[in-house]
């Protein structure tokens, strides 16, 4: 687990449908990162870029799992969500939150 510094979000129009198909909104995904999630490596899911996963809560306290990558755009370090979904109780128990 580690903290992550970022300046904003990059929403990819090709990936957004994969995030929203599980009912998680952009506002909820952004809240997960603003609420101090646990960040883990997510190896094996991309050969072109480093993937990470965030486990945290939206503003309503519901647990959300987000797969993402980081993008550097000039001085900005942006979070680019790839997929997101609500977590099952067994996953919440596993991550110890």
Largest sheet: 5 strands, mixed
Strand arrangement, major sheet = 1-5-4-3-2
What is the molecular shape?
globular
| Beta-strand residue fraction | 35-45%
Tell me the distance between the termini: 12 Å
Considering DSSP H and I runs of 4 or more, what fraction of the residues is helical?
10-25%
What class, by secondary structure content?
Answer: alpha+beta
| Average predicted local confidence, pLDDT | 86
Number of strand segments: 5
Please tally the helical runs, counting DSSP H or I stretches of 4 or more residues: 3
Computed CA radius of gyration, to the nearest angstrom: 13 Å
Would you summarize the structure shown here?
The chain is an alpha+beta fold and 97 residues long.
Please characterize this protein's 3D structure:
The mean pLDDT is 86. The chain is globular and about 40 Å long. It is of the alpha+beta class and 97 residues long. A hairpin with a 2-residue loop joins strand 4 (63-73) and strand 5 (76-86). The relative contact order is 0.26. It has a five-stranded mixed sheet with strand order 1-5-4-3-2. The protein contains three helices and five strands; from the N terminus they run βααββββα. The termini are close together.
Topology diagram in text:
Blueprint: E1 8-9, H1 16-20, H2 26-34, E2 38-41, E3 52-57, E4 63-73, E5 76-86, H3 89-95
Parallel strand pairs: 1-5
Antiparallel strand pairs: 2-3, 3-4, 4-5
């Amino acid at each position: 687990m580690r903290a992550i510094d970022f300046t904003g979000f990059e929403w990819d129009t090709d990936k957004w449908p994969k995030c929203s198909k599980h009912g998680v909104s952009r506002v909820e995904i952004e809240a997960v990162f603003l609420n101090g999630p646990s960040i883990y490596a997510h190896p094996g899911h991309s050969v072109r870029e480093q993937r990470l996963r965030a486990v945290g809560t939206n503003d309503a306290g519901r647990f959300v799992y987000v797969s993402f990558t980081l993008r550097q755009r000039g001085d900005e370090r942006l979070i680019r969500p790839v997929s997101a979904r609500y977590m099952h109780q067994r996953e919440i128990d596993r991550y110890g939150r």
